[in-house]
Design goal:
Layout: E1 2-10, E2 15-16, E3 21-26, E4 33-38, E5 44-52, E6 55-62, E7 71-77, E8 80-83, E9 86-89, E10 92-95
Parallel strand pairs: 1-8, 1-9
Antiparallel strand pairs: 1-2, 1-5, 3-4, 3-6, 6-7, 9-10
């Protein structure tokens, strides 16, 4: 089975991004939302979803940026836990496969 966690950091402010909506969408489903959560006071969502089947999914972030209003990452998830963070600033964003 597959599980996902995430966090969002506001690198311009140098602190966690609180209250960011993150959605999990099954890729190719035409926006079938499987989960929707908000980051906590530490910018984290400890468990966006548990017990998914391996496959293609999209994480959709709605970050606190005047430029980036929606950041969508399509990922291919294998068995196990996946931590997928987003670092965002007013005119840049980056992600990586966390541990």
């Amino acid at each position: 089975m597959v599980s996902i966690s995430t966090h969002v950091l506001d690198t311009a402010a140098g602190k966690p991004a609180i209250g960011v909506n993150v959605q999990l969408v099954r890729a190719g489903s035409g926006e079938e939302c499987l989960a929707s959560e908000w980051t906590d006071d530490d910018g984290r969502i400890a468990s966006l979803v548990d017990n998914l089947e391996p496959g293609s999914y999209s994480l959709v972030f709605h970050p606190p940026s005047a430029f980036f209003t929606r950041v969508e990452l399509q990922v291919e998830l294998a068995e196990g836990h996946h931590h997928i963070p987003l670092l965002v600033s007013p005119y840049g964003c980056v992600t990586y496969r966390g541990s």
